[in-house]
Design goal:
This protein is α+β, with helices and mostly antiparallel strands. It has one domain: minor pseudopilin epsh domain (minor pseudopilin epsh fold). The protein is 30% helix and 25% strand. It is built from 1 helix and 8 strands. The protein has a 4-stranded antiparallel beta sheet, with helices on one face. A hairpin with a 5-residue loop joins strand 7 and strand 8. The radius of gyration is 28 Å and the shape is elongated.
Length: 176
């Protein structure tokens, strides 16, 4: 009877333990380098996204003021139904007050923005209770100032400047 086994040498396929350990070590080193950079990028993007929300709403309010031919207010709101009683990071309201009033009602609220991410802080150079008012020509004559959007997790920040002319400018600052 013939031997059914082949006399050709067989080769084992696969990785040795040493090759696997070296690969895992290289992957761990690459992750240790990449993760802090990734986290910093996520934090900067969170600040940018929240600053963009605020800029977008200011541009919307200015546009509505010109379109309607009447003042439009943007104010900080903790309950998203009335002005005051909160910081800008707790949310804001955009409304077109009726003649002779300065308070939002269900009929004149144009847009509402809720609370920002808990790590984001928004400060206004004119104070918490000061609304931004765009007049019928789009000017912010009594509301010019600077908003600063920061995060508890990083020293990066974004400033939003509102000029008397109503122009809205966004400036980013990278921390050290």
């Amino acid at each position: 009877m013939r031997n059914l086994r082949s006399s050709a040498p067989t080769s084992n396929r696969g990785f040795t333990l040493l090759e696997l350990l070296v690969t895992i070590a290289v992957a761990a080193i690459l992750l240790a380098i990449a993760i802090p950079s990734y986290l910093g990028m996520v934090q900067r993007n969170t600040i940018a996204a929240n600053a963009n929300d605020l800029v977008g709403d200011f541009n919307y309010a200015r546009s509505e003021a010109v379109t309607r031919g009447q003042p439009v207010n943007v104010c900080a709101s903790s309950n998203q139904t009335s002005c005051g009683g909160g910081n800008w990071d707790e949310g804001w309201i955009i409304f077109a007050p009726a003649a002779g009033t300065t308070a939002p009602t269900n009929d004149n609220i144009l847009r509402v923005h809720g609370r920002l991410d808990g790590t984001i802080n928004v400060g206004f150079s004119r104070g918490t209770g000061t609304p931004v008012v765009f007049d019928a020509n789009g000017f912010a004559r009594t509301s010019n100032g600077t908003f600063t959007v920061t995060s508890n997790d990083t020293s990066d920040s974004t400033q939003i400047r509102i000029a008397t002319s109503g122009r809205i400018e966004r400036l980013e600052a990278r921390g050290s």
